[in-house]
Design goal:
- There is one protein chain.
- The chain has 2 domains: 1-69; 72-207, Serine Threonine Protein Phosphatase 5, Tetratricopeptide repeat, CATH 1.25.40.
- Helices cover 75% and strands 0% of the residues.
- It is elongated.
- The chain is mainly alpha-helical and 209 residues long.
């Protein structure tokens, strides 16, 4: 083998080695890029999951905070509706001469101060226990929860047809007065029987206290 041939052989082998190295380098580079893309994709996906999870947690905390921020006053406003007159139905366009009718006309006309005064007078002259209940409602409508509670408690001495309804409004009066403990006790009493007035609402309200 001549020097010239040997030199050509060496140069050829060097080219082959260089070519193989370049191919391996290119292949390795491609593999590394693939791995990098995979990791990047997983990272992005994981990042998205983390962001989504964070949003869910924040929303849950926000909802829970809003739920727990339902103050007794807010719950009272949600559940309270003025009691309808079921004791002395009013026939309109009639001559009103008796005090009882005047009292209930005032009540239905939302003239609660006038109605309360008439109910109070009538109760002391007739001993009609149902009038205590309506007097309590008048006090609630006028914003005097303390006197409303007193009227409802006095009404507890009687077992008339408004007794079950009175318990519901007594619980609400305690709630508005921020006495949650007593409100819960009355609500628990209501939920002992499904026949009690506003049984379902009492259960629902109790679950929020």
């Amino acid at each position: 083998q001549t020097n010239s041939e040997f030199k050509e052989q060496v140069e050829f082998e060097e080219k082959v080695k260089k070519s193989i190295f370049q191919q391996e380098h290119t292949h390795l580079k491609q593999q590394l890029q693939h791995v990098e893309k995979t990791i990047s994709s997983k990272h992005k996906r994981n990042t998205w999951y983390l962001v989504a999870a964070s949003i869910v947690i924040l929303l849950s905390v926000s909802i829970l905070r809003n739920f727990n921020s339902a103050t007794p006053k807010k719950l009272f406003d949600t559940y309270y509706t003025v009691a309808s007159n079921t004791s002395h139905p009013i026939v309109r366009d009639t001559n009103v001469s008796d005090t009882l009718t005047k009292a209930f006309i005032a009540y239905e006309s939302k003239q609660y101060a006038q109605a309360q005064a008439l109910f109070s007078t009538l109760y002391h002259t007739t001993n009609n226990s149902e009038l205590l209940f309506y007097e309590g409602i008048c006090y609630l409508e006028m914003g005097n929860t303390t006197l409303a509670i007193e009227a409802f408690i006095k009404h507890k001495n009687f077992n008339d047809k408004l007794a079950s309804k009175r318990n519901w409004y007594l619980a609400l009066a305690y709630l508005k007065n921020n006495n949650v403990s007593k409100a819960k006790n009355i609500l628990k009493e209501i939920t002992t029987s499904s026949t009690n007035y506003n049984y379902t609402k009492a259960k629902d309200l109790l679950s929020k206290l």
